[in-house]
Amino acid sequence: MLGTLMYAPGQVKVEDVAEPSLLKPTDAIIKLAASCICGSDLWPYRGHGDFAQPMSMGHEYCGVVVAVGEAVCTVKPGQFVVGSFCLSDNTCPHCQYGFQSSCEQREFMSGAQAELARVPLADGTLVALEAHPPADLIPSLLAASDVLGTGWYAADAARVQPGSTVVVVGDGAVGLMGVLSARQMGATRIIAMSRHKQRQELALEFGATDIIAERGEDGIAAVKALTRHVGADAVLECVGTQQSMAQALACARPGSMIGYVGVPHGVEFDGQQLFFGQKGMLGGPAPVRRFLPDLLALIETRKINPGRVFDLELPLADAAAGYRAMDSREAIKVLLRT
Ligand SMILES: [Zn+2]
Predict the structure, then answer these.
(1) CATH of 2-146+287-337 among 3.90.180.10, 3.20.20.70, 3.40.50.300, 3.40.50.2300
(2) CA 120/CA 5 separation, integer angstroms
(3) Which terminus of the chain, N or C, has fewer Cβ atoms within 10 Å?
């Protein structure tokens, strides 16, 4: 079968690789309905951090179960499933508190930019649909596996309420999903920070009410001007750089929460600034499993259309071109047909 491997920064190849097999009784094997490239795949692609080479790429997935280990009891072959990029048992204390992304048995999914994938901890990770979905819902279901679940977590962690004023820092796929999520949670004012026309338009479609193209001090001043010089009730940080984090902290009013889901790279905090700023922060890898049943229901009833975030579709064999398109920001998010 075809699988996507990263050999070194900037070097992605789709090759004939061995089909995955059941390694543990808690595993499932799925046939992917489609796959995609994540913004976080760009960190190693751009040379940030070490990785074992070659690395099997892909952690977002949905598809049909083709085999299960003997201990798996909640999903069975033939069912259409969606799972989180974070693998969890869904039974340990952290899972029970809704933080499946801190599961005592946590693993991260890999190898999903392929035709078949092995999903460890299948019972605690996968959610089965009642029936196979229509083809046009596949992109949205795939988005639920990571970007939608992560944007949703950012809004949940930032405690977005009906009537909230929300700032979303970052116009990548996760930021755009944060806009959609804040809208679903009843925010009445959603300020998206974006300099790119196509992303601004998508943000407006997902529910943004205001767009701010400025960054740094100008961006902060623009947010203050829109919020009676008070700041936002909730801020979603969806980038992970020092500049984006500083922007998020400066736009949040005292007493507010910042949901931060961009994996921090080189971000440092000043203790006294945090102390006197009086702002709360909750972030980390999203516990997508907590939200999946509700998100899948919203998608199946067509109340949300997160699949709109995919603006380029390529055959799996052309994954390398997909990485290039996302790296150069020509594409927001690339769907790979398997
Ligand atoms: Zn657990």
Answers:
(1) 3.90.180.10
(2) 20
(3) N
